[in-house]
Amino acid sequence: MEITFEGVSKQYKSKHALKNFTATLNEGVYGLLGENGAGKTTLINTFVGILRGDRGTIRVDGQDVRTLGKVFLSQIGYMPQYPIFYRDFTVKDFLLYMCALKDIPTHDAQDRVSELLATVNLTDAQDKKIGALSGGMRQRVGIVQAMLSDPKILILDEPTAGLDPSERIRFRNLISRFAQGRTILLATHIVSDVECIAREILLLKQGTLLMQGTPAALEQGIEGKVWNVTAGAEDAALLTDMYCVSNMKQEDGQFTLRIVEDGCPIKTVQPVKPNLEDVFLYYCRGERHDTSDTV
Amino acid sequence: MIRLIRYEFIKQFCKRSILALFVVFSLANLFKIYGEYKSYSYLTDGNGERSWHTLHWQLYEEYQGEITPEKIERLLAVYQPLVEATSDMTASTATDDPNTMTGNLYSDRNLLDKYFVQPMQYSYEYSGRSEQVANRARQSAALYGERGAVYQQRESGAIYNLYAGRTIPAFSYREMCNYYLNYDFSIILTLLLCLYGIIGTFVSERETQMDMLLLVSPNGGRKTALAKILAATLFLLLTSLWFSLLDLIGFAASFQTLEGLTLPVFAIPNFAEVSVNLSIFQYVLLSAALKCAGTWVIGMLWLLVSMFWKNALLPFVINFALCIVLVVSGAACAYSNFFWTKALNPYSLLTNRVLLGKTEFVNLGGFPVLTWQAAVWISLTAGFVLVTAIYFLSAENCHRCVGRAK
Fold this sequence. Notes:
The complex is a heterodimer. Chain A is α/β, with parallel strands linked by helices. Chain A contains eleven helices and 14 strands. In chain A, the strands form three sheets. A seven-stranded mixed β-sheet of chain A has the order 6-7-8-3-9-10-14, sandwiched between helices. By secondary structure, chain B is an all-alpha fold. The chains are: A alpha/beta, B mainly alpha. The interface of A and B includes residues 84 and 106 of A.
């Protein structure tokens, strides 16, 4: 399955939420990375048809999604940002209701719900009311409802927002598990969510696609631009003001700073291997790297 | 579709708060009905040997059924001496007179007067009065015909058809039916409960952010909107029917009888000029149907208004205000000659005796149409327009709300 975005744009009054977004996605996990307000949700909402784009086309296997209608909807699983669902419904009832919405026949619905609840380890909670679930459990219900129709395309909007580390890891593993044979578009501003599982990263800033590439390629793109500097308290404060610092660690009165910068900040230091967080910081910190590019 | 309607119904209306309100309002209604009985009926003085209650039902056994000259003579033979004895107000006021039924002459006279003489006299004379109305209508129709006043001729003809041959052949206990047909409290409860139930139908999807999921589900767009409309319709009809039924059960239980339901509805003095020739029971069914229609239209109006908001509070206030406007304007025009105002206000269908209780016509293209019939057609048309608007605006509105939220 190939998803093609061609010049997709969306504007709210004078603000460009999405500017000429062009990208191609195939099978695998795609991390849509960007700061809050970068246009991730707008892109997703435009893709799934909640919003109407001002310009551009979105194609799935060459067919415009707007002409596909219900056929397209039956191919996608969508998990919105901060889902609340119906507090008075039990998990099972809610999922059976979602099956009705997705036109899944009643006799298949029971089996599908049981199977997916077992996959996400929620079988014991199936008779609990949704209002009584923890945030992590609710997110898992969210992904189950998205997976009910066994969609070819899975769209997850900030799925790990508000989760504790163990739930976040559990959720990440679930996404990897579901990635086989389908395209997953995962929007997040948390780099670690996509660092290990994404086939490619799409870096969004102010509605514009800055970069698209594999995590390794993106990291390679800023090779020689990340530095580890050890300094005293005063110098550390000075360096923090002057440079983009991706990490700062204090040990025995000394500070170790991880600086993302084009040039060497101090002559004596050597560059270190960049990670995806550095890439994110490098491209999203200021205005000077605002060029659409593909690595 | 049935699955969707079922889930919508469960989702919106099988909530603890609504069920609790249902129970509380039902109990309040039953208490109110019992209060009506205790306040207005004279037969609440227990089951003592000389109580009105006991004596009434004993006498009723004797006089109920077909009104015959023998029965009238028998009744007058008891009643006339009592009238004579009490006419100059000098009779004994003792309450333990062994020569009386109730222990008091005045009380005896009043019991017979209120529960037997007056109703029987009204029933006996009604056919003559309605015949007079029919004859005058026929004469008027002829006169208007001569003068070429076609509408007036048709109206008089309709009055003639309605009133000709009206009779009340039997005497029956009618107090329960009288109070039941004039009872309105449950309408307010129905409206409040329906408003509370309806208001979340669309709004709750936004509050839970389920509107996004609905929009990306194959059956989540207009199909779900239709399921919501049908589930809301079901809720409105069930609530309205329940309170109509509860009213009847409450009155029957309080008055401990269902007597009178087979009488023609014009046997109740307030309904002497009623615009339908039905038995009271048939009238009760018609009234319940009209209440359902009125509740449905008002409910659809609320639904449409609530669609445009992101939380329930403001549309609740707006819809409550709308409801007050309908109730107040309905009450203000209830007994006026503004027939069109009555026909246009769906609240009239709820307090439908203002439409059915009088023979009033509105001019529809030169044809006289009874106000209740016009009200039904107008309300149903308005209801279907509202449903169409909700159906087509629901998905569009969702897109707009998502856009506005950004």
